[in-house]
């Protein structure tokens, strides 16, 4: 993954794709995921949908920063590294993140051998990615801006000037606005708010 403040992902699940090899059927899917709970949920749904399938192999990658990426590859009973890693290889080759790719196999009675399996699972993952709309998104940082009502105009002027996205706001005597700022603009924006007397800004972390 690049170290800029953008990353590539998908925003909605792909269409189902089907690949056949020597009577075995491989159904593949791609899902946008932000955490391991979402991965679990998607896999549970697929396993119910394909309750008579022999294998549900998958790989996922979560995170937008190279140092905090989480990934996992699962062969689900296929020979070691013959399914999960070929799927994960496609995630890397398309340079996408926050994504789960699952390939479901119905065994057709003819063994494919490790080489055949690697090719089949890689192809399944590639088809799922080709059926997905891959989008480039910016990495954003959220801040909480806190201030007294009397300083509202000063705060709003910066938000307007810098075209900042407001995520949520609570405007009473004590005001709080949550803003989302593109990573490369973050330091400048923070400095602008810090320069106003009686306004505090702090980064929100998950």
TrEMBL record:
Q: Which InterPro entries match?
A: Impact, Impact_N, Impact_N_sf, Ribosomal_Su5_D2-typ_SF
Which GO CC terms are listed, alphabetically? cytoplasm
What is the residue range of the signal peptide feature?
none
Cite a single GO BP annotation.
regulation of translational initiation
**SUPFAM superfamilies attached to this UniProt entry:** Ribosomal protein S5 domain 2-like
Residue ranges of every copy of the Impact N-terminal domain listed in the record:
22-129
Pfam families per the UniProt record, alphabetical: Impact_N
State the similarity comment: Belongs to the IMPACT family.
PANTHER family, A to Z: IMPACT FAMILY MEMBER YIGZ, IMPACT-RELATED
Q: What is this protein called?
A: Uncharacterized protein, YigZ family
């Amino acid at each position: 993954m690049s170290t800029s403040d953008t990353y590539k992902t998908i925003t909605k699940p792909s269409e189902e794709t089907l690949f056949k090899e020597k009577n075995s059927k491989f159904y593949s899917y791609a899902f946008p995921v932000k955490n391991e709970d979402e991965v679990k949920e998607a896999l549970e749904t697929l396993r119910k949908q394909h309750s008579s399938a022999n294998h549900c192999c998958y790989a996922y990658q979560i995170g937008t920063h190279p140092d905090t990426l989480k990934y996992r590859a699962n062969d689900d009973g296929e020979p070691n590294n013959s399914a999960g890693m070929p799927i994960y290889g496609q995630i890397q080759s398309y340079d996408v993140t926050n994504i789960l790719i699952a390939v479901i196999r119905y065994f057709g009675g003819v063994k494919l051998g490790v080489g055949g399996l690697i090719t089949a699972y890689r192809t399944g993952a590639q088809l799922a990615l080709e059926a997905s709309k891959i989008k480039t998104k910016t990495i954003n940082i959220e801040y909480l801006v806190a201030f007294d009502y009397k300083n509202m105009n000063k705060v709003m002027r910066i938000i307007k000037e810098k075209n900042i996205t407001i995520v949520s706001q609570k405007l009473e005597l004590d005001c709080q606005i949550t803003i989302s700022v593109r990573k490369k603009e973050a330091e400048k924006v923070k400095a602008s708010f810090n320069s106003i007397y009686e306004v505090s800004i702090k980064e929100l972390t998950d």
